[in-house]
What does this fold into?
Amino acid sequence: MNIIERIILKVIRNKVKKWFDLERSLTSLENVHTSVENSPEKSWPNPDKIPSGEEVPFSLKNIPIVGHSLRSSIDEGIKAIKSIQENPKSGQVSITDPELKEFEELAKLKGIGAIGYTKLPAHFIFKDRAVLYDTAIVLIMEMDSIAIKNAPSVDTFRMVMSTYDKLGEITNLLTEKLRKMGYQAQASHPLGGLVLYPPLAVQAGMGWFGRHGLLITPQFGPRQRIAAIFANIDNLPLSEGNEHSWIEKFCNRCGKCIRKCPSNAILELPIEHNSGRKTHIIREKCLPTFVKQQGCTICVKECSFTNNSYKDLYERFKVQNK
It folds into this structure.
């Protein structure tokens, strides 16, 4: 690694470290919701691995491909933390139906594919992280279907990182919208973030886990990225159930993502933790392949819910389970 390469990676590492330090500083604020003993560690992105080029997408060969989206994502992640200072000091706590409709219409206009609402369990919060409010607005953005079909490819990788970037920018924009309406809110960027997103989206009734550990939704299958806004609003339409649990039985019979994974990173049986949280992928096997292929995404490409409609698979499942 030459001097220029070292400088580039050092600059990126320092920006990510700044981002992480800001996230950790949230725990020192008063009346915040913090992690608990069985909360997971936040392991990605890891600034300590950036200088060696081990941490995706920070390896040097990826910078020309996703450098712009990466830099923008880091900046938006930093903005998400710093901007909490812009919250109204005494915010409203009940949103009107017209205001909620206006918020949701803006979200969809900007590219949000689905919105859900739920309470945030403490064991979803990453260790050494905190959120200001325990009501979550979960945001989903679709990943481009054509780019997914071309996986693994540079175009796929560029699209994945661009989706992270766009969703992060929109999450900050929507958080700002809530503040202008008079509500206190906090954005959580999709790249890493402050909490575990897939189980949060499941709790919001938006979909269910596949065996690859990704969220599967009726709208996009596993082709999405997830972010959240935590808001001090007490009358949001929280999810009261989840009609997508049949996906688990379907996936248990399928297993295509496991067979197609080039690094054998997807577990036949997930590791179940004391909190009920499940680990589906061995990170140490997944990331090296992701690095080598400049964005793998094979598990998304090969998923039955990518290649068939949710409705068709559900109808087939009902027939098979009569």
